[in-house]
Amino acid sequence: MPHVVTRAGRIQGTRLAVLLALVHSVNDALVGILGVLLPTIQTRMDAGPATLAVLVSIFAISTSASQPTIGVMADRFGLRRFSAGGVALAAVSLSLIGVVGTPALLALLLILGGIGSAAIHPISTSIVGGSHTHNPGLAVGLFTAGGMAGFAAGPVLVLALVAAFGSRGTAWLMLPGLVFAVLLYWLLPDYEPHATRGTRVSMLDRASINRRTLTLTGLMAMAGLVFLTFISTVPLWLVTERGLATDDPTLGWTLAVFALAAGLGAVLGGAVAPRFGQGRTAAVSLVAAGAGFTGMLLLPVGWPQLVTAAATGLLLYVSQPLLILAAQQAVPASPTAAAGLVFGGGSGLAGVLYLVSGTAQAQVGMTSAMYGTVVLLVPAAVIAGRVLEGSRRAAGPHSQPDQRDLDGSRASVNGWYGAPVPNKAEVSAMDKGEVTDE
């Protein structure tokens, strides 16, 4: 069921959506620095490919596998508290990864930072992709684009800090995250819990687990493995196979253009899927992303490689908002838990699969291992085409946004984010702190 406001926030509508996109950007700027620091970590800690793969997997799993549980608990005990606390924990933990000197301490920070980062994703997607939004696919896509913008800025910013202050300069990155954590706690509304407070909290919402959400989770895992491979293996590959220095700006710019294009791809997917069909949009984009990744591995370092990196990111992320929305449509009673299961569970499974990729890199080389990973996008495209088309048919005409605007209850607020406009009675009730419902 949709989230129901019990205490009005200080901002709403488009401004609330913009805030969440900005928070996502700041959070994912920290998430994005691990990949570009891997060559430095490899040199400083004398770590081999297997150790680096374990660190990447630990971070991916902690960032993702905790999302279903966080989604359940946030639905029940408060979206505002969980989102603010998570952003603060991620800011402190991830900004210190350039400071610690042992793999064990680094792994601990990655676990804590991953859990903190996990909170913002299912919570925010359930808010911006709710039933009150005129185009939930576009709304989730814009939220995703905010994260990708931050993810793109993170590698470039951290290399600049390392060049100026050494690896310990990453500690300065905690300040923006702490500021936005305070803003979230102060500005977000409170929502009515989706379950009774007195009941037992389970690790997963069992209602969110069905054949469709499990299939969507598998699809997210295959796409997520390709994403992980790009952001984690490509920087090492550029240093090892192409001879770049560990602090070469090309490392940061390669990840930056990939991430920026991925954000645009998420918006593009939400915008074009209603016209061309979710299944067809996802299938074509996944196959084309594999072609882009292959081209990047074959072309020389420079503009050709940057262009193909951008094309890979753009096409790989077209399907992501479609998978998340299909999950929420499959389990309308627990949308946050469903989003957490598919996005978090799928990304966590991708982290586990990356361990296999790390072993393959040590055995057959980075290039061959990456080619093997890219091939997975072909079966992923076939399955996505069928599952997303089935989701559209199952949702039926009610999956379309409510266009009623005779009394203003469904009017768009400041553009694309179609939050309900309260009438005078609702405003009065919110001012008194009473529960409001549509």
What is the gist of this entry?
By secondary structure, the chain is mainly α. It has 18 helices and two strands.
Helical segment count? 18
Overall pLDDT metric: 78
List low-confidence stretches: 196-203, 397-438
Question: Could you describe the largest sheet, including whether it forms a barrel?
Answer: 2 strands, antiparallel
Give a topology summary:
Blueprint: E1 5-7, H1 14-31, H2 33-45, H3 49-64, H4 67-77, H5 79-94, H6 103-118, H7 120-128, H8 136-165, H9 174-187, E2 190-191, H10 211-240, H11 249-276, H12 278-298, H13 303-316, H14 320-330, H15 335-364, H16 366-374, H17 377-395, H18 424-431
Helix pairs in contact: 1-5, 1-7, 1-8, 1-9, 2-8, 2-10, 3-6, 3-15, 4-5, 4-15, 5-6, 5-9, 7-15, 8-11, 8-14, 10-11, 10-14, 10-15, 10-16, 10-17, 11-12, 11-13, 12-13, 12-17, 14-15, 14-17, 15-16
